[in-house]
Description:
Four copies of one chain form a homotetramer.
Chain A: E1 5-7, E2 10-19, H1 26-35, E3 40-47, H2 51-66, E4 74-78, H3 82-86, E5 91-94, H4 104-113, H5 125-149, E6 154-157, H6 162-172, E7 177-180, H7 184-200, E8 210-217, E9 220-228, E10 231-232, H8 235-244, H9 267-276, E11 279-280, H10 284-287, H11 313-332, H12 346-354, E12 359-366, E13 379-387, E14 390-393, H13 401-423, H14 426-435, H15 443-456
Parallel strand pairs in A: 2-3, 2-5, 3-4, 5-6, 6-7
Antiparallel strand pairs in A: 1-2, 8-9, 8-13, 9-10, 9-11, 12-13, 13-14
Helix pairs in contact in A: 1-2, 2-11, 4-5, 4-11, 4-15, 5-6, 5-13, 6-13, 7-8, 8-9, 13-14
Amino acid sequence: MCESHEEDGRFEDVSIGFVGGGSRDWAGKMMTDLARQHTLEGEVRLYDVDQESAEQNARLGELIQDREEAIAEWDYRAVPSLADALSGADVVVLSTQDPPAETFAHDLDIPAEYGIYQSVGDTVGPGGTFRAMRAIPQYREIAAAIREHCPDAWVLNYTNPMTVCTRTLYEEFPDIKAVGLCHEVLHVKEDLAAYVEKHRDVADVDGDDLRVNVKGINHFTWIDDVRFRSEGVFDVIDAELDSQLPLPGGFEPGDLDGETFYVDNDQIALDLYRRFGLFPAAGDRHLAEFVPWYLNIDDPQDVQRWGIRLTPSDHRIEHWPTNERQRERHLEGTEEFEFTDTGEKMVELMTALLGGEELVTNVNLPNRGQLSGVREGAIVETNALVTGDDIVPHAAGDLPEQVRSMVRTHVSNQETLIEAGFAGDLDLAYRAFLNDPLVTLPPEDARSLFVDLVDAERPYLTDWNLEEATVLEA
Amino acid sequence: MCESHEEDGRFEDVSIGFVGGGSRDWAGKMMTDLARQHTLEGEVRLYDVDQESAEQNARLGELIQDREEAIAEWDYRAVPSLADALSGADVVVLSTQDPPAETFAHDLDIPAEYGIYQSVGDTVGPGGTFRAMRAIPQYREIAAAIREHCPDAWVLNYTNPMTVCTRTLYEEFPDIKAVGLCHEVLHVKEDLAAYVEKHRDVADVDGDDLRVNVKGINHFTWIDDVRFRSEGVFDVIDAELDSQLPLPGGFEPGDLDGETFYVDNDQIALDLYRRFGLFPAAGDRHLAEFVPWYLNIDDPQDVQRWGIRLTPSDHRIEHWPTNERQRERHLEGTEEFEFTDTGEKMVELMTALLGGEELVTNVNLPNRGQLSGVREGAIVETNALVTGDDIVPHAAGDLPEQVRSMVRTHVSNQETLIEAGFAGDLDLAYRAFLNDPLVTLPPEDARSLFVDLVDAERPYLTDWNLEEATVLEA
Amino acid sequence: MCESHEEDGRFEDVSIGFVGGGSRDWAGKMMTDLARQHTLEGEVRLYDVDQESAEQNARLGELIQDREEAIAEWDYRAVPSLADALSGADVVVLSTQDPPAETFAHDLDIPAEYGIYQSVGDTVGPGGTFRAMRAIPQYREIAAAIREHCPDAWVLNYTNPMTVCTRTLYEEFPDIKAVGLCHEVLHVKEDLAAYVEKHRDVADVDGDDLRVNVKGINHFTWIDDVRFRSEGVFDVIDAELDSQLPLPGGFEPGDLDGETFYVDNDQIALDLYRRFGLFPAAGDRHLAEFVPWYLNIDDPQDVQRWGIRLTPSDHRIEHWPTNERQRERHLEGTEEFEFTDTGEKMVELMTALLGGEELVTNVNLPNRGQLSGVREGAIVETNALVTGDDIVPHAAGDLPEQVRSMVRTHVSNQETLIEAGFAGDLDLAYRAFLNDPLVTLPPEDARSLFVDLVDAERPYLTDWNLEEATVLEA
Amino acid sequence: MCESHEEDGRFEDVSIGFVGGGSRDWAGKMMTDLARQHTLEGEVRLYDVDQESAEQNARLGELIQDREEAIAEWDYRAVPSLADALSGADVVVLSTQDPPAETFAHDLDIPAEYGIYQSVGDTVGPGGTFRAMRAIPQYREIAAAIREHCPDAWVLNYTNPMTVCTRTLYEEFPDIKAVGLCHEVLHVKEDLAAYVEKHRDVADVDGDDLRVNVKGINHFTWIDDVRFRSEGVFDVIDAELDSQLPLPGGFEPGDLDGETFYVDNDQIALDLYRRFGLFPAAGDRHLAEFVPWYLNIDDPQDVQRWGIRLTPSDHRIEHWPTNERQRERHLEGTEEFEFTDTGEKMVELMTALLGGEELVTNVNLPNRGQLSGVREGAIVETNALVTGDDIVPHAAGDLPEQVRSMVRTHVSNQETLIEAGFAGDLDLAYRAFLNDPLVTLPPEDARSLFVDLVDAERPYLTDWNLEEATVLEA
Lengths: 474, 474, 474, 474
């Protein structure tokens, strides 16, 4: 696939197209990852609808490369068009986001007016649904451009809603070599490593020391097997659960007010494990949104009892300006750029795809058997072997009936959104919205919420046929 | 199959075993149905755990036969054991109910304490789940007795939860000739007939004049085709919907206080039609319980906005004594017994099964293809040809994705309850409980509600392994 | 659907488009059927690529109408185009055939040169495969014309290969109201009626007195239930089998030389029943072609041991001229036209579809659940309720594993032929050809046979991409 | 799972139970493999129904260990019972065979009398079917003993018919950790490596240098992707095919008379590739038996045209005595034992399972999604990750329609044989026999062949209910 040259296990002239290259935080981390390794060198072309921001990142990239910690050589260039980013790319990285103040903030605030509180709001629930509705037309366009400019490139998608974005890429361009990537499972492996240390009395266990069998859909994957040095250690979860009962425990509303918004105490994961017998492999803030129970609260503070906080829209709105200001300080030299890596497997993954060392990790791909009991073609998350120009998913087996039922509800909604998005059929999207477990509102309120969200985000829904949508009728 | 003799289109010596023969209202109606027809004659053996009540019904049967309106000859006999009722039966009728004060009242009241209001409470939701949990052991016993005493008899089940009871019969005795019967679809056909009259300007349209394609699970079946005199008239539903918009319309909390508890104004059916494009074929009180939206109310009176009332537990508790007192008055002759038929197709159905006139009607049977997209073996409701010693379901086709998703959630729960009930596994039943759309409670409340219900109905859960149930642990 | 008027249970002004209206035998029978009944009257427009022959049939139709036995009034008109036949049609009848000397004769003779003998040659095997390959483009054209000229008409297809022709209609025009009709099951019911008479010692049992559960694909359907007056009488097949053992019995090569080519002694049906436990519902001459065993003979005469004859190509070639000469004599008045009906259910079926008396009969329709275990959309044959403007298939259940395996092989081939035919992909068609159970030839011979057939029938394969077919390469 | 100790990447005290430990050739090779590696040491307990032969092998093992080439230390011990071999085993190796003169010879000779020639006769066809029928009771017994004595051991099955033997193990003991292993795919990778060398002009390509995606059932697996250094090189097969056309080429009957019986010239593999577009991953002698074409010959010599020979029964009969005599010479010291390895991945596989270096290789396991389009639970062959105490199959995707159809026919037969074998139902086994593609005999001949085989192998069919088998009736 790749025009890059391998020399002594190193790949030179790797060409990366970065769509969403104006990214205010993720770009910096990716550039750090690229700088701090030995195997890949080449060029990154940054494209963003906000070209200014892409150019800032190009300058930041140069600054990073100038640091002495930088090992590999990378050139960064902001480009004015999608075509420029994609042409000749070996790898395409997708990490885009609409302006939070115009979108994400509404995704959170408007449902909250109706009593629907979302801990993240980017995957399922009303927020995730509208994020999907906005993303489908955008990702169709990206897929079409990839088909035109670099059909053989590997496409690494980091954008949420992961499942719907990746599914859109395949629906538009079935031969695309795209994969959806997410670090939630990696974080959970770190948690499990800590359980192993604690309950098996061993030291220095790392997430990478564990092998897990993971299966489900992104942010709602499940683990039914954990191995440490060939030994099954799934029972450490029972031990941890016993040590934490009763659940939820020890947190009262307000206790977490000073904490980061991303605080996570495994309360929900352990509670779901207790109820369903499999351990969910995503952070509690994501898990909470897939089922109607944890966010069924009258006061948003109540969610703190489960050891998590809601992320307020203010924080989302401030995210961009804050990061922009920091980037400026980095570029001005008034603040030193900190080398923090993404925690992602991106470099290992690119290396493997280019023909370097193989890797087994969790990925999001169209189902071709890896998740039994779920329809073929739906985007599912399981382990896979990443190897030279190929990703081969593991056959992870089936889910227990009751977990499968929950997963299937979301798969059904995601497939419905894809069908609706490609047809521009808002009424069909509304059906997926209604079937979302967080949408337990009385019918008129559900409709009103949906209409309010459409109205607030109308500029981002231009591809939808709003004129003929009966749900918008008085 | 049948030892009865056919003479000139009449079947004599038909032997019916009635399990639940002490029934306080349904028995009277069935006996009326049997009296007021020309094709079937024979004997009914009434068995009930409350033998006294069965004997009262036997006397009531004689009284009915003495009436001049009685056409066919039937003997009624209360028998002391299930074996006595079943031995030699051509047809077995199942219509049982646990004492409402000890069961049904709890099914309604305890969830209400947690804010879960149920309009009926006998099919899904917390009430339907516990009714299922009580019924499974009972219906296993009945199925085993049928296998022993009358394996070739046709078994007509009228007991709710229809799906779980019928599924239990087949799980215990796969060769049973059982069918679940329900009049909800018949009532909906009457409603549709009224729509045809109104919007096509024709007079005297009866439900039986329409042919509908019906598919789903009992109390949550859906119609996608309506024919009147060969003509497709599905569009009358659009016309009716237009005439009723906005939904819900015209009802305020309190408006229905004086009405029967069974009042139904098609508001929910039309609203579901509007959202999902198929017309649901059950009363609104049933439909409301399958989805989380209509009963998501703070004040129980609020449900009146949808043109229905909740049936309070008082009414359920009073149901038996009221009917018993009336039966006594009938037997004493202080009140005249009114000939009101069941509105069921029971006589036509028995006649067809015995070899008389064929019939197409809706039935509940294990899926063998009649409802595409739903697992084989699950009990589904579609039309079927009822003919001599056979019932052949129609292949009703598939459901639209989003309706199928809702139906499958319940099928998953029902299958889980069957598995749990046969294993006595309360923790597994709890998973079905949690996955019920009405159970959106915060986790600890959900668990607490489940435990409360177990405690309240413990005498009816003797077959369950309560000792090892972790859900009951502190 | 229909513009015809119903008066007193009679339908007037029924408009029938007959494609293949020059048919040399079937047309006469259909016209007889139409004349000899009370419920339908109207017009038949005869279209044929051989317009002369259609005109002869129009004259024959008038002659039939002039007979005193003619009850219903029908006008016959030959029309010059498909559009003329279809426009305004309530019902379309399809019964076409390519000139036997140029096609059917090759289908039989060329395989015979390779030692593949076919008893009929119109359904599967090399002959059926090439008939399918010729028919697919033709039936695409017909389906497209129906979509244009009479999309609401009911289309009754009588053309073989039944499955592929009907499947083509649906593939081209998914909303078509088409059904494939075949009398083989009806004939088998007559055989079964004779078994009932013989082994139950009852008189005057007619095929219509039996109810059978039939399932499979056309000419390879299977019966697993037979009812007579509500009673299961499947055991008469065992009795008949016992009376006929050993199989095959009593026939030596040459014994049937003087018999009709259509002779059938149930030897193969009973043998298949003995091996697989279900009774096949098609004539032995058809059944023999679906499995590799009965026609695995060195001398064509050997097949007579199974009580059947091969139909020689001479007979097929002579069929048209013979029938043409007879039609001329009928028209000249030198030979009296004999009123023989088709034995088909066509009139009853049209009547039911127009809104008259309902009918349950076997039909070929896309699978939507009626044959469990076989893919959705494949054309399968089961019973169905034929009613006003609708045909509702029965859910016939599953087949035993080993029968299902045989059926699936043919379904796979038929679906492959459809895919190949719509793509014009001859290499893909060749794969279906190779997978046919009759094609057990050594590989080079198989290829050579395929090429010979393509060469012989090249004028009828114009829609196929022969240039790029690697199978045709030296 | 394992009691063995790991020291510096070496595993000591590995306990292996070898069932079929009297094996006359495979044992020697396995012992060689064990001797010539550095990672595993321990004990092998040899069990065989022919205890004498097991003891000879134990002595041979000692002799091998005494050789200076022997690196790892292994103790060999013949044990008198299955229990002795299994108790405490970390790994169980299964490699059994019935005495060829009493079984295998009949499997080949009796069908040949009916004109059915088999190139191997151990997988499908009449021979493979009877081998399966003999093996099922034996492998049930082995599985039951494993459940009792070493339920956590890994079971490596090398016995044919691979699919049926492995399936039997799982049917009897669903929690067994068994895997079926076969070197055919490894050999095909060597062939492909040679193609790469030839058509890409590179030197020293080894089978292990290629990555293939393999899927199907043992001896009838298919490759749809070949990678060499990350590059897709599937096109070398086209190049090779072009260079070999026309097929078959260059071999006339008799040409191979002097060759080994195992000669293979890729003629059939390339021919199947040409027809179906996927490359079959087994030797031609195996492939020929799965389809009716290549062995449809009048003279057994004719098969040489495809570059293979039939293995005559003489050779099979002589195999044991020849090997026994050689083993005696080895033990007497009159002939030097040659160190030839198995070419199997056994040592690597055991090492990986014990927690050593991971391995991706082809394995036979119950389908849980790895082969889409084939029923769950059937034994399928795909790649898998072999790791510490676990084997995780790759999701290999689907097969093209026409290949899937051929594969499914065999899966259906294999599942039927399992059902038949567990029920002792000979008539059901006969249905599988009839549906085998090689059984194209006229019906009476098919029955006669089946009966002859039953009669010849009656001592090995003791678990079958022969008394009630109608196929054996006159």
